[in-house]
Amino acid sequence: MKRHMLSGKFEEVIYARIEAGEDLLPALWDICKQNNVKTGILLNATGNLNKLRLMRISNEPTKYNFGVDFVELAGPLQMTMTGIIGMGWLPDESLRTPPPEFLRHYADTGFSCGGFEGHEDPYFKVNITAMGVSGAAVCGHLLMGSPTGLVNWDGKADVPSHFTVAIAKVSGVILRATWDKNGYYHELIPA
């Protein structure tokens, strides 16, 4: 099968600490803005969460839920995640206000359940796997409203967080998460 493919190169790997209590997805967007990451790879992130919001494949898919469920889990949760980074792309100005189904929770803004807030903003398609104290694991796409853990091993928050992410900045290709009259899809374009 002939596939649409483009290649890029790693420019640098950015390591960043996420502080206790930060909402994880906006923190990732902020790291990309600060480092001008238009396309990249979330190589890894490890840490703990006070709460996790994610989107996963629905047990009962319908046209009203787009085939996905939104799930919220209480912490503490140990987690790991990887994913792809691009930019939100809304070429039609008349579609720059998100439809109501994109705003399902008080923490959601813009197109955040699609991984970005607005036109040309950082986009993350992050698969997160987390496990709570019960030992049950869950996997899905990270959503806003997922704060990092407030405590360290001794129950105090007086030392810096150990929550760390590694992001590879890629040049030569741009990944766009596009929302237009055709729907929601990825585009690959030369940089």
Structure description:
With 191 residues, the protein is mainly β. The protein has a single domain (9-190), classed as Hypothetical protein, similar to alpha- acetolactate decarboxylase, domain 2 (60s Ribosomal Protein L30, Chain: A). It is 6% helix and 47% strand. The protein has one helix and eight strands; from the N terminus they run E-H-E-E-E-E-E-E-E. The chain has one helix at 24-34; strands at 9-17, 40-57, 68-89, 122-132, 137-142, 164-171, 173-180, 183-190. Strands 1, 2, 3, 4, 5, 6, 7 and 8 form an eight-stranded mixed β-sheet that branches. The longest helix is centred in the first third of the chain and has 11 residues, at 24-34. The chain is globular and about 50 Å long. It starts with 8 loop residues before the first strand and ends with a strand. 31% of the residues are buried. The mean pLDDT is 86. InterPro entries: PPC_dom (IPR005175). Residues 13-145 form the PPC domain. Pfam families: PCC (PF03479). This is PPC domain-containing protein.
Number of domains: 1
Number of strands: 8
The H-level CATH homologous superfamily, spelled out, is: Hypothetical protein, similar to alpha- acetolactate decarboxylase, domain 2
N-to-C SSE string, H for helix and E for strand: EHEEEEEEE
**Helix segment tally:** 1
Share of residues in helices = under 10%
Q: Give the averaged pLDDT, no decimals.
A: 86
- Rg from alpha-carbon coordinates: 17 Å
The major β-sheet equals: 8 strands, mixed
What is the terminal separation in angstroms? 25 Å
How would you describe the shape?
globular
Name of the CATH class? Alpha Beta
Q: By helix and strand content, what is the structural category?
A: mainly beta
